[in-house]
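Work Package 3 committed the consortium to producing structural models of liganded targets before the mid-term review. Because experimental data for this complex are still outstanding, the team generated a predictive model from sequence and the ligand definition alone, so that downstream docking and mutagenesis planning could proceed in parallel. The input record is reproduced below exactly as it was submitted to the modelling pipeline, together with the SMILES string for NAP.
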Amino acid sequence: MSEPVRWGILSTARINDKVLAGAREAAGFSVLAVASRDAARARAWAAEREIPRAYGSYEELLADPDVEAVYNPLPNALHVPWTLRALQAGKHVLCEKPFARTAAEAERAYALAAERGLLLSEAFMYRHHPQIARLLSLVAEGAVGRLRLVRAQFSFPLAEASDVRLSAALEGGALMDVGCYCLHAARTLAGEPSAFAAVQEHGGDGVDVRFAAALRFPDGVLAHFDAGLDCAERDELEVVGEAGTLWLDDPWHGVRPGISLVRGGAVQEIAVPAANPYRCQAENLCAAIRGEAELLLGAADGVAQARAIEALYAAAG
Ligand SMILES: NC(=O)c1ccc[n+]([C@@H]2O[C@H](COP(=O)([O-])OP(=O)(O)OC[C@H]3O[C@@H](n4cnc5c(N)ncnc54)[C@H](OP(=O)(O)O)[C@@H]3O)[C@@H](O)[C@H]2O)c1
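The resulting structure, written out as C-alpha cells with the ligand in place, is given here.
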C-alpha cells in the first residue's frame, strides 16, 4: 500500500466539510494543512478538524514542502490563479468546479500541469459516483437505443445576498455554479457540442441567476438544460434514446442514487449502490497521484468544459 497523499486546503470554504468527510474515508488520503486569509480562522478551523498545520496565507501553505497536493475551493475567479500558483509550487491540484470560464485559461493551467508532470483535475464529484458509470454502461449497451436527447436541470433558491455565487467579480452565476453540472453530464454522454443557444436572466450584482441552454452534439444528438439560483430546488437528468428513456432523480449529489429505465411503456428501477462521491473522487485523485489509476477527469475534459462554458455565455449575449 502506498503512502497516503498529503493534502493542503486553500481556505476555510463551507464546501470543505463535505469534501473532507468523504475524503477522510478514502484510501490513500491524508489532510496535512489548511490556509486562510485570516491566521486565527485557519488555526481554529484546523483545531476543530484535527488538521496538524494551519497557515495565515495561501502562499505559506504552498511553500510547505510536505504538502503534495492542494484542494482549491476558492471562489470561481480564484480557481485558475491559485491553481497556477499551486502548480508552480510543485503541487498536484484538485480544483473545485467550474475550473475556468474560458478555454484559454484552462489550456494555460493544464499545459503548466503537463509541463511540470503534475495532475490537475476539476472537482466534478458527481461524475465519480457509481450511478454515472452505470448510466454510461446502460447507454453503451443500448438500453435506450440510439442516443437522441439529453435533458438536465439543477437549481436552488440562494438565501444569502452576500454569497460569492452572486458576485460578478468572483465569477458567480447559475451556469458557473450549477449549470456546469448539466453541461458536463451532456458532454459526458454525447461528446463535444458544435452549436450553442442560450438565454440568461441577470440578478445579484450582474450575474446570471437563471440560465437556459440548448446544444447540438455529434450524430445529431441534442441537449437542453436549465440552471437557477433563484428557483425551487430541482435536480434531474434524463437520457432519451430512440427506444427508451433513462432518468436519474438525484444525478448531482447522488444521495438517492438509482436509475429508472422506461421502455415500451414499462418502468424498470435499476438499483445503484450508495456511495459518497467525495470519497470516490478523493480515491481516484490519490491513486492517480501514486500512479495506480487513471485520472478520471483530466486535461481534455477540463479544457473542453471551459470551452463550452465560454461558448454558452457568448451565445447568451
Ligand atoms: N463540488 C461540490 O459539491 C460543491 C458544492 C459547493 C460549492 N462548490 C464550489 O466550491 C467553491 C467554494 O464554494 P463555497 O460555497 O464553499 O464558498 P465559500 O463558503 O464562500 O468559501 C470560499 C472561501 O474562499 C476564501 N476567499 C478568498 N478570497 C475570497 C473572496 N474575495 N471572497 C470570499 N471568499 C474568499 C474564503 O476563505 P478564507 O477566508 O478562509 O481564506 C472563503 O471561505 C465554489 O467554486 C463552488 O462552486 C462545490
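Reviewers should note the following from the model. The CA atoms of residues 8 and 192 lie 33 Å apart. These observations will guide the Year 2 experiments.
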